[in-house]
Amino acid sequence: MTISREYARSLFAELTQSAMVPLDPDELLHMPGLRQHGHVFFGDLAVRCYKHKARWTYDERDIRAAGREMASLELRLEDVVEVHLPPYSEVADSSPEEWGRPSWRRQMVSWMFNRARHELILEGRSYDEWGDWQRIGSNGLPGELTLEGFLASSSRYRHMQNIAGTRPLQLLTWSGEHWLLPGVYVDLLDRWEEREDELVARASLCSSCGDRSPNWSDWRTPTTSGYVTRCPPCSGSAFQLYTGHLGGVQYETVRRRGTRADDYLCRLCKASQASAWDHCHEHGHVRGPLCGSCNTREGKATPYSFLQLEGGLLHLLECRSCLTQRTLPRRFHLDVVRAHLQRTERHGQRCRRQPYVQALEQAHGVHRFRLQCSGWHTTGDWTKDVTAAEVTAMVRSLVDDAVAEKATASSSRPDSGRELLHVLCP
User: Fold this and answer.
1) What is the pTM of this model?
2) Looking at residues 406-424, what average pLDDT do you find?
3) Rounded to whole angstroms, how far apart are CA atoms 33 and 27?
């Protein structure tokens, strides 16, 4: 019998309340490996996720079996082994392919050094004042980071607590020369790395032709029954290309008629089966069919990141009203200004670095932004006021540039289908 995520979390927590391995039952709610391989890990145990009627569920038998096994795992806290963590240089220089592979040792090193760097930023030190912050101190931690501070900060950030559904920092100790963990727990995490590698490799195979994806995430497609791996040729042969025939049509009309989006390829990534009709919430016009990932990205990602996505700006202009009015939905306006200020404002005549720009407040029709170059200059902190009329003009200029560049590309290469790339931040 399948059960809800909430009930699965409650049941697993009850079954493992006496477990010696520190666990995080909330993994069953957050499902961090869902897109990768469709499972949630607790140690080397993989619990499969199921999707039914647009809701993610679990098999109750799987939850009970995982709970009983984790509860029965014994740790002898006196039976500890040395943990040999890789140097920070190896972690920092890892290729994207290496970062995609599970490595609990590399993850712990990343936590330590990221926290040490963050502490220096919080203290307001410029980069020139950081000194030898990568040097490992007598407590095994980099820079001036203390064990108490590291553990306290980690408890506030969920992503710095969990590896394979367990919390290693609750078992980690420093001997004065080496990091130590219970041997049984180290073996458990090593087996997790192997098991996760196996599931990711299996999920990288196209479900139709068996070809392997060059990157596990490239071919993973969200569907009504869960994630499916399908290569672009197989997706292209299975689903229609959207031709823009619903341009100017209201979303409510499409919804009432029951026009299916999952008959089409996603018009943004052009590699996955669409699952929803994306539409402009201000004007109601249909923009086009999007897969679950792209639809989530449009609705929940920061406007700044979506505008930098290849094809993102032109997709927003599929709304007939946005295009004719040369505008964008209001939630994108301030990020257009942010990007404009990053591109045009500098701290002094000789500074070539882009400042960090943050929207502060709006008063009497004027938006105030804070610009910072303090990571490189101790005095690089100033404000910039932008009127509502200037915001409108910046948005209109961006849209005009996008439309003009698309027209130029279409006239010179009519069959290329090339989208505008990085109009916002060239």
Assistant:
1) 0.70
2) 53
3) 9
| Cβ atoms 173, 70 nearer than 8 A | no
pLDDT digits (tens, 9 = 90+) for 390-412: 999 999 999 999 999 888 876 66
Read off the pLDDT of residues 217-239 as tens digits, 9 standing for 90 and up.
Answer: 778 877 778 888 888 888 878 88
Q: State how far the Cα of 201 lies from the Cα of 99, in Å rounded to an integer.
A: 15
Q: Cα–Cα distance between 52 and 421 in angstroms, integer?
A: 37
pLDDT band at 18 (very low <50, low <70, confident <90, very high): very high
- Annotated domain spans of the chain: 2-72, 80-203, 220-329, 330-426
Q: How far apart are CA 1 and CA 67, in angstroms?
A: 16
Residue 373 near residue 288, CB atoms below 8 Å: no
The secondary structure element, H or E, covering residue 396 is: helix 388-412
CA atoms lying within 13 Å on the CB side of residue 147: 13
Cβ–Cβ < 8 Å for 83, 27: no
Q: Answer yes or no: are the C-beta atoms of 173 and 166 closer than 8 Å.
A: no
pLDDT in tens, 139-164: 999 988 999 888 888 877 776 789 99
Is 48 in contact with 38 (CB distance < 8 Å)?
Answer: yes
Is residue 285 very low, low, confident or very high in pLDDT (cuts 50, 70, 90)? Answer: very high
Residues in the chain, overall count: 426
Give yes or no for a contact between 116 and 133, defined as CB atoms under 8 angstroms apart: yes
| The Cα angle at residue 348 between residues 347 and 349, in degrees rounded to 5 | 130
Nearest to 169 by CA among 249, 271, 83, 252: 83
Number of alpha carbons in the 13 Å side-chain half-sphere of residue 74: 3
Helix (H, G, I), strand (E, B) or coil at 89: helix
Q: What contacts 24+ positions apart, CB below 8 Å, involve 29-35?
A: 29/5, 30/158, 31/5, 31/56, 32/162, 33/196, 33/199, 34/227, 35/217, 35/220, 35/222, 35/227, 35/293
Rounded Cα gap, residues 59 and 20, in angstroms: 24
